[in-house]
Structures are given as structure tokens and as C-alpha cells.
Amino acid sequence: MKKIIVLLFFAVILNGYSQKPKNIFSRDPIVNLENFQKKKVYYGFFLGFNSYDFKIDYKNAAPDILIDKTTGFNVGIIGDLKLQEYVNLRFEPGLYYTKRNLNFPDFSNSADALREVNSTYLHFPLLLKFSSLRTGNIRPYLVGGMSATLNLSSNSKLMDDNLQQRFRVKPWTTNYELGFGIDIFSEYFIFSPSIRGVFGLNDELIRDNDPNSPWTGNIESMKTRAVLINFSFH
Asked: CA–CA separation, 149 vs 82, rounded Å?
């Protein structure tokens, strides 16, 4: 799927250059989808990548828990409501797959030191999009807002904890998000690559049953951090 997304991205760019290079990047371009900005409501979809991390705060000074991040996959839909000429309200529900490996210090046994955190998220961001003045067929924008995330792989209902090799987090988290992107107007649709940061607001760790657990006893808070790269089509 990652290869497919990359190929789609380059296919769109190459198509813009090879078929009608004046349409997008020339000094005097042919203006595509000239009336699109007059729409009150429009819809689209996105595909993309993610890199999820944890921000961990500790109660006492100790060796850090090392986090190995991997590249995950995103897919979702877009609903966009025009509030003003340069301000839009966007709802972008999506499905996000990711994986993080937590390496706990002070364990000689690798089975105790390593915890794989596989996550499947339903992500519900409500965002404000602030667009600049359109220049030909290019329109940069900033985006920011709040989101709620449901972790379908949280293990929150299990009684087993890290002693039984079960790492648990809370199912719901809230976040704020900030990012930027570019609307590229082609002849038939708008292609929008964007990058966005996600910053968790609440502690999502479920502590082990033993308050002195070597895995969770010294953790003050554990919050999500993530980078999302999406390719949107409208």
C-alpha cells in the first residue's frame, strides 16, 4: 500500500507536467476548477503515512524507555464546510494503523524488556483550514484543531498486565493538531499533500496492578505524539 500511495503521488505530479505544464506552475497558467472555491460543501478522501511516538514523563530520574517507531498507514474521508472565503471547517475521520516498540531498561530477559504496542486507531479530527490567496493553480494553507482518537487495540478491558506481557492504554485520547499543506488544482480534481503534528493532551497509560511495577511504576504520564503525512483528493 505504501508503494501504491507513492506511485499515485508521482503520477499526479508527472501528469501535471507532461500533459499541461502551463496549468499549474507557469507564470500565466490556465486556471483550473475556477469555480471550486464557491462551493459551500465538498467531500474527498485521503491516503497517507504516519509515525507515532510517546512523550513519557517520569516520577523519578531513571534511564529512559527507548521507543522504536515504525511507519504506519492512514486512510479516510473528508467533509469540508466553507465558513468564509479563506476559512473552512473540516472533518476528517480516518483509520490509522501503527506500531511502536517499547524497550524497558534494567531487564536482562528480552521478553520482559520488549513490549510491542500495535495500534489501530479511529481518528476524528475537527479542523479549521486557513487558506492563502490562490496563485494560479496553487493555494497554500494552514490547518489546526482538536481531535479524539479511539484505540481499538488498547487492551483496556484486560485484567492481565505487563507481568503477563500485556501492555495496556486507555481507549480514548484527545489531542490538538497543527499542520500545513498545499492545494494543487488540476483539470479535474484538487490534489493536496499535507503534513500535520498530533499532540496528545491526556495521560493514556493504564498502570499495572502492582503500584511498584518495573514497567509502569515510575511513569508520571504517557502521551501520544505523531506526525501525519496525507495525500488528499477532492
From this structure: 25
List, for residues 131-159, the tens digit of each pLDDT value: 998 888 889 999 999 999 999 999 888 89
Whose grid coordinates read 495521560? 203
Nearest to 167 by CA among 110, 102, 94, 99: 102
* Residues 9-29: tens digit of each pLDDT: 455 444 444 444 444 445 556
Which grid coordinates are listed for 78? 473528508
Does the pTM of the predicted model rise above 0.90? no
Rounded Cα–Cα distance for residues 178 and 144 (Å): 4
Q: Is 12 helix (H, G, I), strand (E, B) or coil?
A: helix
- pLDDT score for 40: 86
| C-alpha cell of residue 35 | 469555480
Residue 21 cell numbers, joined: 505544464
**Residue 118 Cα distances to 12, 63, 155, angstroms:** 32, 24, 10
Surface-to-core class of residue 149, CB atoms within 10 Å of its CB (0-12 exposed, 13-18 middle, 19+ buried): buried
* Maximum pairwise Cα distance, the chain: 68
Cα 223 off chain centre by: 14
Q: Please state, as a whole number, how many other Cβ atoms lie within 10 Å of the Cβ of residue 27.
A: 6
Which residue ranges form the domains of the chain, and what is each CATH number?
Answer: 2-233 (2.40.160.20)
